[in-house]
Amino acid sequence: MASKRLLLLPGDGIGTEIMAEVEKQIAVLNDVAGAGFETETALVGGSAYDAEGAPVSDATMALAQAADATLFGAVGGPKWDGVSYDKRPEAGLLRLRKEMELFANLRPAICYPALADASSLKREIIEGLDILILRELTGGVYFGEPKEIVDLGNGQKRAIDTQVYDTYEIERIARAAFDLARTRTGKVTSMEKRNVMKSGVLWNEVVTRVHREEYPEMTLEHELADAGGMKLVKAPKQFDVIVTDNLFGDMLSDIAAMLTGSLGMLPSASLGAVDAKTGKRKALYEPVHGSAPDIAGTGKANPLAMIASLAMGLRYSFAMIAEADALESAIAETLEAGIRTGDVMAPGSTEVGTSGMGDAVAERF
Amino acid sequence: MASKRLLLLPGDGIGTEIMAEVEKQIAVLNDVAGAGFETETALVGGSAYDAEGAPVSDATMALAQAADATLFGAVGGPKWDGVSYDKRPEAGLLRLRKEMELFANLRPAICYPALADASSLKREIIEGLDILILRELTGGVYFGEPKEIVDLGNGQKRAIDTQVYDTYEIERIARAAFDLARTRTGKVTSMEKRNVMKSGVLWNEVVTRVHREEYPEMTLEHELADAGGMKLVKAPKQFDVIVTDNLFGDMLSDIAAMLTGSLGMLPSASLGAVDAKTGKRKALYEPVHGSAPDIAGTGKANPLAMIASLAMGLRYSFAMIAEADALESAIAETLEAGIRTGDVMAPGSTEVGTSGMGDAVAERF
Ligand SMILES: CC(C)[C@H](C(=O)O)[C@@H](O)C(=O)O
Ligand SMILES: CC(C)[C@H](C(=O)O)[C@@H](O)C(=O)O
C-alpha cells in the first residue's frame, strides 16, 4: 500500500482535543517506525456549518473519498440546536457514511480489566467481556424516503420516517458478520423485530439463507431486538458477534458500550466494500462517545476511544497488525499503571487530563 | 361503577398457568370483599389461531371492547414460527391494542428490595428504583403504512416499514406523561432521535409545546433515545417518568425491566382515552415478560407480574385503590417472607411453583 493518507475530522466539542492526542500517536508511528502517514485536517459538524455553511462541505467530502482512512472525532452540541434539520451537525456524519457507502459499522464492546469497577454492572457479569456489535450503517430508517413532516392543516402535522432494507444490503452485512465471527468464536446473533416489522422478516430470512448457503460451519442465533437488549443487560458474555440494523444497532451498541464501564475507551470502525480493482476499502474511524459539550475546552476529555479508533484504522485500513496490537497494549498498560482521566478515576489512581493521557499512551507505544 | 366485567385472555405458553393464579386473587376479592367481578375467558395468540383460525377472533374482539378491563397473559412460541405474518400470535395483541385505541402503555420499572440482588447491576445503582416508562402504543412503526415486502426481481426484495406520528398522537401521550408525573416527582424525560428522525423532530416539538402551554410547573427534559438508554443503564434513578414512542418504548422498557432484576414481577397497563360520556376508559393489563415457551407446562413460571397486572387494573380501571395497595403489599410481603419461584431463587429462600406462589399471595391478600 503506497499512500497512507489520513483525513482528520476533529468536529465539535471535545473532538479537537482528543484528535490532538491521536496526532501524537501518529507522530510516534512516523518518527519511530517510519510509517509515512500523511495527514490533512478539515472541518465537520457544527464547526463546519459555522465556517463553511454546511456540516460537511463538498471539498471535505472529496478529501474523505480520496483518503485511505478518515478519523472522525465527534459532532453536535447545544449551540446548533436551532439549525435546520438539513444542516444540523449530525447531517455531516450521515453524509460521510452514506456517500462513502460505509455499510459495516464495527463496535467492539470490551471491558478493560482495569476499568471493570467503573461499570454499573456487577464485576462478574462484565469482567472479560469482549463482544462485537456489527451495525448496518447506510440503510434503514436513517436514510429511507419519505422522511418528512407534512402540514395537515388544523394545527396537525404528520411526521414520517421510512425503514427500508433491500436483500443485497442485508446480504452484505450478514457476510461481514460471518467473516468477523470466523476470526472470533464463530457465533453470530442476529437481532430484529420480525414479529412487528416487515424489515425484520426480510432481515431474518436473508441472514438465515446466507448462513445456510455460505457459512454453514458457523453458529447463527436469532433474537428479537427487545429480548436481545434484555439479554445484553443480564448476561452480555453469552454473545460474540451481534449483527443488527442501523437503528437497533445505534441503541444496542450504545447500551453495550455503557455496560462495559469503558465508554470513553470504545472505538468504532465504519467500513465500505473492498474494491475489486484496488483491494482498498473506504473507512472511517470514530469513538462511540459523543462531543461532550459540557466538558469541551476543559482539557478533561478522555482521548482513549479516539486513540483506540486509530488502532482500528491501523488494523483494518493498513493491515498494520503489529502496530495496532502495540497501540492497544499501550492503552491497556496506561490504564493498568493507574493513569486515568476524570471519567474513569478510581481511588489510588493518578488523574491526568486529555493531554497527559495522550502522552502516557505515546510513551508506552 | 356498576359492572365489573373482566375479560381474561391467558394466551400461549405460561399464559394459562399464570392467569390461573390471577383467578385466585379475583376469588379473594369476590369472596372476602364482595367485589362482584364477573370474568369471562377467551383465546388469544397461537392458541386462538389453532382453535379459531385467527390470533384474535372478531368475537373475542367484541368481548374485549365490551369488558371493563382485559387481563392478558402472553402470546407466541416456536410452534407458530411458520405462521403467516398476518396470523402470527403477536398480531392478536397488536389488533387488541390498535382497535381498542390503547395508546398509553404504562410500564413501571420497580426494584423490589427483596430482589435487588437478582439484578445484574450493582445493588446501590438499582436499590429503591421506581421509574415509569410511558410508551406510545398505537402509532409509530408498529402500524404505519406502507408495511410490506416487495419483490424487485433478480432475487432482490425490498422490505418497508413506516414510522408515522401525527401531532394529536404525540399530544395525548405527552399529556398522559405529565398527568402521571403530577402524581410522582413532577419530572418527565422525553426520548426520541430528533437528530436522525423527522418523527423525533415533531415529537420533541409537540412535547415541548404541551409542557409550555399546559404543564409549565412540571420539569421536562429531553434525551436522544440512544443516550437515554445509556443513562438508564448507568444511573436509572435519575429518571422518573420517561415518555417515548412505540418502538423506543419497546426497547427501553424491556431494558429498564431487566435492570431491576425483577422482570418476572413487572406488570403493565395499556389505557385508552377516558370517554367523556361514560367516564370509562378501555384498558388491557399484561405482564412485561413473554410466554416463556421453554418452561410452559412445568408449573415453574413466576405469576407475580400477572398478579401485579391485576393490581394495576384495580387501580386504573376500577379506582379500587385500597385493594390495589393491598394486593401489591401481599406481593411484597410474599417476597420478603423468602417465598420465591425458580427465576428469582436466592440462598435461604423457599422455592415454590406457580401455584404455590399464587396461594402465598392470596393468603396475604
Ligand atoms: C450522531 C448520530 C447521528 C449517530 C447515530 O445516530 O448514528 C450516533 O448516535 C452514533 O451512534 O454514531
Ligand atoms: C409481543 C410483541 C408484539 C410486543 C411488542 O413488540 O410490543 C412485546 O414485545 C411488548 O413489548 O409488549
From TrEMBL, chains A, B:
Protein name listed in UniProt: 3-isopropylmalate dehydrogenase
Site label Important for catalysis, positions: Y142, K193
PANTHER family per the UniProt record, alphabetical: 3-ISOPROPYLMALATE DEHYDROGENASE
GO terms (BP aspect): L-leucine biosynthetic process
Protein's gene: leuB
Requisite cofactors: Mn(2+); Mg(2+)
Domain Isopropylmalate dehydrogenase-like residues, every copy: 5-361
Organism of this sequence: Jiella avicenniae
One Pfam family hit: Iso_dh
Substrates-to-products reaction catalysed: (2R,3S)-3-isopropylmalate + NAD(+) = 4-methyl-2-oxopentanoate + CO2 + NADH
Residues at which Mg(2+) binds: D226, D250, D254
InterPro entries assigned to the protein according to its UniProt record, in alphabetical order: IsoCit/isopropylmalate_DH_CS, IsoPropMal-DH-like_dom, Isopropylmalate_DH
Domain of life assignment: Bacteria
Any single Gene Ontology cellular-component annotation: cytosol
Subcellular location, record wording: Cytoplasm
